[in-house]
Specification:
about 0% strand, about 325 residues, 2 strands, two-stranded antiparallel ribbon, 13 helices, mainly alpha
């Protein structure tokens, strides 16, 4: 059992190093990304054909890919343990991202600081759905901070939480479910009936990680000397402002910790008694993201150890 635990710890650390060093796959490798494969299947098979078809679409787009990307490194481990672990770690890395979102945030920050608002807006438009071209600087920065907060859960904490509980299949299940929600989980025709199952699965899987994120962000706030109490209070009282079961928790936690108002014009406001964010707050938000990631990794390691201990009790 100790040997298996050490394998998982090595895999986790290796996957984080691969993400920080390599970033996202490029060229031909992007075509083999499980998120891309699942997205392509969903796109090609999609038709507005009711809720039962939506269930079928989710299963046919997620489960085969999850099985394939789990079995490949397991088979390689039988042939060569080192190669199998490296491939396993790389596939785990494909379920989360630290570098991608923080690189976006840093490049946007650099653009705003240098006065290149056109480039800052262009980069921001790549990570948000709202029209950024008419936003003032405060609302532009707000969009970036909101994306950082959401990405902390969807793109990092949640897949690692399920990795700690169920290994690579858990991380793949969460990531691919999130992909299906992004593909078809929208309100209104033609998506609503087909996408309802994908949206529900994503909501259920992110329910615990979203709330855990508020605890982690408040801990990170305390370590940074930010307002950890306000982080908790704003999260508790205003997480429902965004109209989402889950995404409001990390966003409200960031807003409280940073002492800023986050606003999507015409949709929601969080912590509206505070001023809008500026470049200094964006810089702090990136640091808050980094510290939160470190704490999340420690918690993931603790969950791996707890899982190994509980399994040993029944073997």
């Amino acid at each position: 059992m100790i040997e298996v635990l050490l394998y998982y710890i090595v895999i986790l650390i290796t996957s984080v190093i691969l993400d920080l060093v390599l970033g996202e796959p490029r060229g031909i490798f992007i075509r083999m990304h499980p998120v891309v494969v699942t997205g392509n299947i969903a796109f090609k098979l999609f038709r507005p054909d009711g809720k039962f078809f939506g269930i079928f679409l989710w299963f046919i787009s997620v489960i085969p890919i999850m099985i394939i990307y789990y079995l490949v490194p397991r088979i390689l481990m039988i042939i060569n343990v080192v190669v199998g672990i490296v491939v396993y770690a790389y596939f785990l890395k494909l379920t989360f991202s630290i570098r991608l979102m923080r690189d976006y945030a840093k490049r946007i920050l650099k653009g705003i600081e240098s006065g290149d608002l056109y480039n800052a807006r262009m980069l921001t438009q790549e990570i948000v759905r709202r029209n950024v071209w008419d936003l003032d600087t405060a609302h532009l920065i707000s969009a970036v901070i909101e994306s950082l907060a959401e990405s902390f859960v969807d793109g990092f904490l949640s897949p690692l939480f399920y990795f700690a509980l169920f290994g690579l299949p858990g991380a793949l299940l969460q990531r691919l479910s999130n992909t299906m929600d992004s593909m078809v989980g929208y309100r209104g025709w033609p998506y609503e009936d087909v996408g309802w199952f994908s949206a529900r699965v994503d909501t259920v899987l992110n329910y615990i990680p979203a709330r855990l994120s508020s605890i982690i962000i408040s801990m990170a706030s305390g370590l940074m000397g930010l307002n950890w109490k306000e982080s908790i209070l704003v999260a508790f009282h205003e997480h429902c402002n965004v109209g989402s079961v889950n995404s409001g928790w990390p966003m409200a936690s960031f807003a409280g910790a940073l002492g800023v108002m986050l606003e999507k014009v015409g949709a929601y406001k969080i912590n509206d008694d505070a001023p809008g964010p500026d470049v200094n707050k964006l810089r702090l938000a990136i640091k808050l993201f980094d510290v939160s990631v470190i704490i999340a990794l420690v918690i993931t390691l603790a969950l791996l150890i707890l899982r190994a201990f509980l399994i040993s009790l029944f073997i």
